[in-house]
Protein 1
Amino acid sequence: MKLNRIVIPSFNAQNQANPNLTLIHGWGAESRVWEAWATEAFSKDYTLTLIDLPGFGDSPALPNSPTLEADWIEALVATMPEKTHLLGWSLGGLLAQQIALQYPERVTRLICLASTPRFTQNDGWTRSVSPKIINDFIKAIGLEISSVLKKFWRLQLQGADDSRALMKALTKHMSSRKIPSIVPLNQGLILLKDMDNRDQIKHLAMPTLWLLGERDPLIPQDIRLNLADLQPNAQIDILAGGSHIPFFSHPKETAEHIQTFLNQVDPKPHAKL
């Protein structure tokens, strides 16, 4: 099954299509949350594909299944261009890592924005979110979805300069969004709680950028120490003052980090075999 996508074509001076850049958003969001930012930042040089996760935005939901992670990845891959740079934010980053691992021939470069190979704490993995927070969200969305989503937006902007003003602007920006149903919201939270790519990311075959917010309340910047051990060849950048929604709190700086990475010449393989 294919998901909803927004495609923004781009052509060079010879009227040839520019390289693809595909964006996968995070939990509780949809492609429209970063469409304007991505268009301004990248549409001159890249053909953009923004994919709505299953059950979010205009994408159909997938049924509950014991193969939930595989089902979501299959749907995303079916919607992607054949060859593309891949940018995943938060939950989108977790999924993008698995896509890059399973379909390395499809992904040219990988950008994990405000993301991590494991979102929740366990067995010594402490620079991440307590499972209790995820479980509390799972319980809460069964009672009132809209207020929970607003709470999550507020949490992501904590620590950013002018967080109140940013929250007000983000609420206005997302006022026309479609509220997801409880099924895809629960599915996304389950993936956030259970996905674990730590032992696999050393096998990523393409250049990888981890772009972390200095003030991200969900993924502390100290996780860079873990990432350096798990994927020694990756590039790890810290966005000064950045929140968990860095493209909203620091749009220009976030775009510059990503554009610089995409413009790099890569002379050697990156996978650790």
Protein 2
Amino acid sequence: MNYQTSHTSQAFPELLKNWRKKSRFSQLDLALEAGLSQRHVSFLETGRSKPSRYSIQQLGQAMNLPASEVDILMLTAGFAARTSNRNWSEATRTAVNASINHILESHNPYPAVAVDRIWNLQKANSAAGVFFQMLGHDGDPNMLRALLKPGKVRKSLNNWDGKVQSLMRLFELEVARRPNDHEAFELLQELNNLPGASEARNLTTKEDSPPLLTMQFKLGQDDITLFSMITTVGLSNDATIEDIRMETFFPADESTEQWFQQNIALHL
């Protein structure tokens, strides 16, 4: 993501005030949480005081903002964004990449992928490559679009309507956390405009939602049911690192486990 081009047109005082209200903080509560005085927060929101990098970082942490949104606060205040690959030491880059590779490859023969904040594929383990090929994945780098757009992958996904509702709801929540991420908003609009998406989202069901969201695929005569876990870097002030997500898929039943042992493990 290019945070320079995703810069909001709002001035810092207005942006801070909007985030405070969205986070449901009073000026006093935010000041206490950020370790600042209420008067200082008030002056920042009216423009009577100029923020420091430290105060912006404290405010962002207090409101639990994504690192990318803290960077935008920095930019609107006239500072450089904290996120920059140039700030990564070689040791940090090596450690992060090694950790991602370890998680992905250790998960074979089950699929595992690393994606960014809008689910663009960054890395995949060997099992994922084989499995996606068997599903008929056309190489679309965005995993949400690959699942939801018309094509072989969508056709193989059982109960597609229900999955659209769940996946879009999750993505909408993520986009809501990043109101200045224009790329994410544009993807959300694109997904909403996919054939059948709006109809599927408006479907109602009397059935209770299952406790676990599973992905159920049909490959030939075989039914494959997977659930996933998502891993992120624990603490980071860099949006590039914070946005990395590793999604590991697990068999949800014994027949799926046997299918992967028989059909994927042999190809690795």
